[in-house]
Design goal:
single chain, Rossmann fold, seven-stranded mixed beta sheet, 10 helices, 7 strands, globular
């Protein structure tokens, strides 16, 4: 995938793998942000860069109303399909910097695995515009937890195949160096929670191929990457499965 491809289009060919193999979010994330935002049954949550709907689903399961803001057509359609059973979900074809939402209409703004695509100054202005007084924003990542031999081996494959598509590591850095700029001059908090998926071989390969900075099925190097992941799987699987571990990190606070 060309490095100059727009962030809006970058996941178009990966929506299927993303929907099937990316992790959801622990209930503890919803509980934390519900307390911090004093959410009620009338509250509205904006999920910015909502993608295939995984973060939206966590809030919808708890009965909250969610607007998913997603500019990529394939990802947005995948999210609309996943969340069709939730009457309190609404989808918007829009961006972080121009959400199309009314002024002061949102109690909580969340972004899962998406902040690195945002223009931070424009996003901050837009999020302040749509937030109700006292509103909270939260940036959330499921980060691979590379403490175990299995996860270190998987990460070595990611490192190898990301080298040509993200040579300076800007995409993998995820925008974390710009978090303070979103909240400035207010402080923000970081809370962390364990998370895990259990995969067969197809799931392991699909999970890694869902990353925008490694080859997908239509990119040179994919077959070699899949072969290396298969060898790792064979070394570590137990009863046809491996644990794929994460730390879910939640950076949150008030914008004003």
């Amino acid at each position: 995938m060309p490095r100059n491809q727009s962030s809006t289009a970058r996941f178009s060919s990966r929506a299927g793998n993303y929907a099937r193999f990316r992790p959801g979010y622990p209930n503890a994330v919803v509980e934390l942000l519900a307390r911090a935002s004093a959410l009620s049954s009338e509250s509205v949550i904006a999920d910015i860069g909502s993608g295939t709907g995984l973060l939206s689903a966590a809030f919808l399961e708890c009965g909250y109303a969610v607007v998913g803001v997603e500019p990529n057509r394939e990802m947005r359609k995948a999210g609309e399909s996943l969340l069709a059973k939730y009457p309190r979900f609404h989808s918007a074809d829009a961006k972080a910097e121009a959400t199309s939402l009314p002024d002061r209409s949102v109690d909580l703004i969340v972004a899962g695995q998406a902040f690195h695509w945002f223009n931070v100054p424009a996003t901050r202005c837009e999020w302040i515009r749509i937030s109700r007084p006292g509103g909270i924003a939260a940036l959330i990542w499921n980060e691979r937890h590379v403490e175990s031999p299995l996860m270190r081996a998987v990460e070595s494959v990611v490192d190898k195949y990301a080298a040509s598509m993200d040579p300076d590591g800007a995409i993998r850095e995820g925008g974390r160096s710009r978090i303070q700029a979103l909240f400035d001059p207010r402080p923000f908090r970081l809370d962390e929670f364990p998370n895990v998926q259990h995969f067969g071989l197809e799931g392991l390969v699909g999970r890694i191929a869902s990353c925008s900075y490694v080859p997908d099925e239509d990119t040179p190097g994919y077959a070699e990457m899949a072969d290396e992941l298969a060898r790792i799987f064979e070394s570590f699987e137990r009863d046809g499965s491996i644990p794929f571990e994460y730390i879910t990190k939640v950076y949150w606070g008030a914008l004003v």
